[in-house]
Amino acid sequence: MVGTWQIAGEQNSGGTLEIIDSSTIILKYMGEEKKLIGCKLDFSKSPFWFDFSAQDSASVMNVKSIVEFVNDDMLKWQLFVDEDRADHFSSTKGELLYLRRAKPKTKVAANTPNP
After folding, report:
1. Would you state the pLDDT for residue 90?
2. What are the angstrom distances between the C-alpha of 92 and each of 54, 67, 86?
3. 65 with 50: CB under 8 angstroms?
4. Nearest Cα residue to 19 out of 47, 55, 52
5. pLDDT confidence of residue 26
6. Count of beta carbons in the 10 Å neighbourhood of residue 91
7. Domain residues of the chain, as ranges?
């Protein structure tokens, strides 16, 4: 899961989930950037569980979520903020997002002629 994941589809607000390592995860959503705290991943579940907290001005948001790899470059992610987690993806609870792995930007070397 390490890498940058961009929110895809209709919910695309320029949001990203950047997983640097197991202890550094940054969520950018609706113009705000938050370092996630208390992250717990449980890969023994299917879909797997991803729980975390985020500081929001004066309070802490506790989020439970479920995640599933659609393929190597796409995640299905459903978040349940301050509510019980569903065991499976649900259209009646939480917020469902799709995330696409961001492609690394290619660098053009200096003094390389453009074709």
Report:
1. 87
2. 24, 17, 10
3. yes
4. 52
5. 93
6. 8
7. 3-101
pTM, full prediction? 0.80
Joined together, the tokens standing for residue 16 give: 């990203």
Instruction: Determine the residue type at 3.
Output: G
* Cα–Cα distance for residue pair 85/106, rounded to 1 Å: 39
Nearest-angstrom CA–CA distance, 51 and 42: 9
- Write down how long the chain is: 115
Give the pairing type, strands 59-71 and 74-81: antiparallel
- CB atoms under 10 Å from CB of 69, counted, come to 12
Written as tens digits, the pLDDT of the chain (115 aa) is 888 999 887 655 678 999 998 789 999 887 888 999 999 999 999 999 999 998 877 888 889 999 999 999 999 999 998 788 998 998 888 999 999 999 766 555 555 555 5
Instruction: Find where tokens 């469902």 sit.
Output: 96
Question: What residue ranges in the chain does DSSP mark as E strands?
Answer: 3-8, 16-21, 24-29, 32-35, 37-42, 48-56, 59-71, 74-81, 95-101
